[in-house]
Amino acid sequence: MIAPWLQQTWTRLVDLGERLPHALLFVGPAGLGKRALAEALAARLLCDASAADGQACGHCEACRWRLSGNHPDLHLVIPAADVDEADVGEAEGGRESAATKARSSQIVIEQIRDLQGALSVTGHHGSRRVVLIDPAEAMNVYTANALLKLLEEPPAGCVFLLVSSAPRRLLPTIRSRCQQWMFARPDAATLAHWRVHAAKDSSSLLAICGGMPLAAERLAAAGGAALLERFVGDVARLQTANALRLAAQWESWLKSRESAAAGFALPQLADWMQRWVSDLAALRLGGRVRFFPAQEGVLSALASRASVAAVSNCYNDLAQIGRVAQHPLNLRLVLEDMLLRYARAITGARE
């Protein structure tokens, strides 16, 4: 299903018809529906008889193959562990193995080599073939250079669809070989209509997700309202004296079956901490709360006793922690470091 805020983009893609370039790069914040739009376009390109609105019919032989996950001319290139995510959850009670975590962050060069081999033969169902790569920034420099050869000399009838939320991490040569399509946040009117049909906590979830509706929907489905309530309650009451105790509690929280089932781990928690401090900094500088509007009173009280320098330094420190949160670090030490830095910042002297 194509989100309402992407309908105009979809119409433009459909109108291109046979003038569609051989490589497109969909760029925009996570949670907007870029992947769903890319999948819809791939389905359209492979369909034998697309519908009046340009979408795949869902009934032809090609669509039946695709819907069963067996279309030989549709090549999905994603981080290796994502393919087996369901199997891992079933085998380990929702807990990722260390090997899976290590594999999950990158698209490896072997996947591109396999793709090169698959594209070296003619299509199985007509001449059209589609490659969908998501997230494109998961490619390291070696993988990206291997893909670059395919983009420079694309096989006949092949369309590459790249999806990225961090295009600056892509090689400039990759970006230059693709036609870029920018995806912007929905406007206020669209979000107001979406909230009518969303969960009761949609406003808070939408805010913490930076106004990304689909990200908010995923968070809601994963029990995000309860996670957010606990986070806010803990961090709003935090004092330097109990930072180490809270770090121990958060370690157990992140290792719990509930957090694992929700996909809630250190990267998400570190991101929420950074957004909380971002709102603190905004208030301290005379700005407005963006991510935690329901807690503006609490944030205002905290901001009133923290210095600009302390809050700014804390934000920078949390940004550094966020950059390494995906790595296999000592969880307790990271949480202690993060919470102690925050606690000291909010007890600093006002400038």
Concise synopsis of the structure shown:
Helix content is 55%, strand content 7%. The chain has 351 residues and is an alpha/beta fold.
Tags for this model:
351 residues, alpha/beta, Rossmann fold, Zinc Finger, Delta Prime, domain 3, 2 domains, five-stranded parallel beta sheet, 5 strands, 55% helix, elongated
Write the layout of secondary structure elements.
Blueprint lengths: L6 H10 L6 E5 L6 H13 L14 H7 L6 E4 L2 H4 L1 H7 L6 H7 L4 H11 L9 E5 L7 H12 L5 E7 L7 H5 L2 E4 L5 H10 L4 H7 L4 H9 L2 H13 L6 H12 L2 H6 L3 H19 L11 H9 L3 H17 L6 H16 L5
Parallel strand pairs: 1-4, 1-5, 2-3, 3-4
Kindly describe this structure.
- This protein has 351 residues and is an alpha/beta fold.
- The chain folds into two domains: 4-182, P-loop containing nucleotide triphosphate hydrolases (Rossmann fold); 222-346, Zinc Finger, Delta Prime, domain 3 (Up-down Bundle), CATH 1.20.272.
- It has 19 helices and five strands.
- It has helices at residues 7-16, 34-46, 61-67, 80-83, 85-91, 98-104, 109-119, 141-152, 172-176, 188-197, 202-208, 213-221, 224-236, 243-254, 257-262, 266-284, 296-304, 308-324, 331-346, and strands at residues 23-27, 74-77, 129-133, 158-164, 179-182.
- The protein has a five-stranded parallel beta sheet with strand order 2-3-4-1-5, sandwiched between helices.
- The radius of gyration is 23 Å and the shape is elongated.
- The model is unreliable at 86-102 (pLDDT under 50).
